[in-house]
Amino acid sequence: MPRPRAIGTMQSGPEALARGAAVRAVGPLDRTIPMAEQIHHPTNDDVPRGLPQLPRPEVDLSVVLCTWQGERWIRVLLESIAAQERLPDELVVQDDASNDATVELIRAFAADAPFDVRLEVNRRRVGSTANFALALARCRGRYLALADQDDVWYPSKLQCLAEELDDDPTITVAFSDADLIGEDGHRLGRRLWDTRQVGRTLRRHPVVPEELFARRALTTGCTMLMRRRVLEAALPFPQELDHPAAPMRHDRWLSLVAAAVGTVRAYPEPLLGFRLHEAQETGVLVGPALVGALHRSAVEIAADADVDHGSSLLGRAAQLEAAARRADLLGDFIEADALRRVADGNRARARIGEHGDGLGDIRRAARYGAYPRSLPGMGSMAADVVRVLRPNRGSRRATT
């Protein structure tokens, strides 16, 4: 029998938090509480003198779910979380102002769920990354698992990943592979890692160094289980994540910080079904969509003289510097230096062609380590050479 609980549905959002607006919290005391007293709200400012002290964990395992217009898939995900061999202690839900049946479906699930369900609804949309920041700040767990509203978790997902963290206290994040499934839920016969061209790298480096995370996105949030230490280092999300030329999503930021302040382990088995559908906010490109994206990228490099590639490189460098500062604050100086070396390489690439010697700039960027000895590294160098040799190259310089 599930134990009785109250589900608190509260209206929230940046403006409510800024004013400390009073909201109705439906709980055992049924009283009106200022929102600012309910949760810690991450801001977009970095923290120069130290990180905020989050409350000590009150439960063992939290699942963090952000939703928006998810009525089509949400019921299947919730049922798969309830079927876990190792149940979470709480499900923390942050809905981003859905106007479909998503919230009602969550409330109905909460009535009989075998764990606490803590739901908040934003007054207005804040976007995926900001929404996860709000949800993460509300979590009470020692371990935290991120969930996407359209996936299907296999019963052993939380158990397998939690065992990785249980067995090695240095591990800050464990993440798995996933099966790709279609809209109807049937497996497509492909895995997430290999489809994203990271499977070979992750199987070769099951303990993933921070430099690899600095160079490319390797994880997907719904496959991750993280220790609370990551949350303490990653919040508040810095303003650099919102760089217009190189936005960084919450899951890449979390994995980057996790690798800088601890150990990240790749678990090679699929522990969930990752659903592909046209309405998803993030995902993977397969088949014709992948071919089309590669073609558009090639055309852009070869023909568009006005594209400012340097701005995105400088944006990524600023994000790496932000992660390095967080690592410094926790005493992980060697890892912070590794992130700064990659940032230096990005800045060197951004300066290619500024002084009229493009090929010489590429050689100098190579000395900064801008092109790792890997297929992506060779691809980056080849793209820079094409830009340097392209007729009628634009003269715009990168800006932050």
Query: Tally the helices: what do you get?
Result: 16
Question: How many domains comprise the coordinates?
Answer: 2
CATH architecture of the largest domain: Alpha-Beta Complex
Beta-strand residue percentage: 15-25%
Q: What helical percentage do the residues reach?
A: 40-55%
Biggest beta sheet attributes: 11 strands, mixed
| Poorly predicted parts | 1-48, 301-307
The CATH homology group name of the largest domain: Spore Coat Polysaccharide Biosynthesis Protein SpsA, Chain A
The rough form would be described as globular
Rg, Å, rounded: 22 Å
Structural class estimated from helices and strands: alpha/beta
Give the averaged pLDDT, no decimals. Answer: 82
**What is the class of the largest domain in the CATH system?**
Alpha Beta
Reading the helices and strands in chain order gives: EHEEHEHEHEHEEHEEHHEHEHHEHHHHH
- Quaternary form: single chain
**CATH fold-level label of the largest domain:** Spore Coat Polysaccharide Biosynthesis Protein SpsA, Chain A
In total, the number of strands is: 13
Distance between the termini: 56 Å
Describe the structure.
This protein is of the alpha/beta class. The chain has 2 domains: 9-275, Spore Coat Polysaccharide Biosynthesis Protein SpsA, Chain A, CATH 3.90.550; 288-389, no CATH class. The protein is built from 16 helices and 13 strands. The protein has helices at residues 14-19, 35-38, 74-82, 102-110, 128-138, 157-167, 192-195, 199-204, 210-215, 228-234, 250-261, 288-303, 309-329, 333-350, 358-367, 375-389, and strands at 9-12, 22-25, 31-34, 59-67, 90-95, 116-122, 141-148, 152-153, 171-181, 187-191, 207-208, 224-227, 263-275. The strands form 2 sheets. Strands 1, 4, 5, 6, 7, 8, 9, 10, 11, 12 and 13 form an 11-stranded mixed β-sheet that branches. Strands 2-3 form a two-stranded antiparallel sheet. α4 (102-110) links the parallel β5 and β6. α3 runs parallel beside α4 (102-110). The protein starts with 8 loop residues before the first strand and ends in an 11-residue tail after the last helix. Residues 1-48 and 301-307 have low confidence and may be disordered.
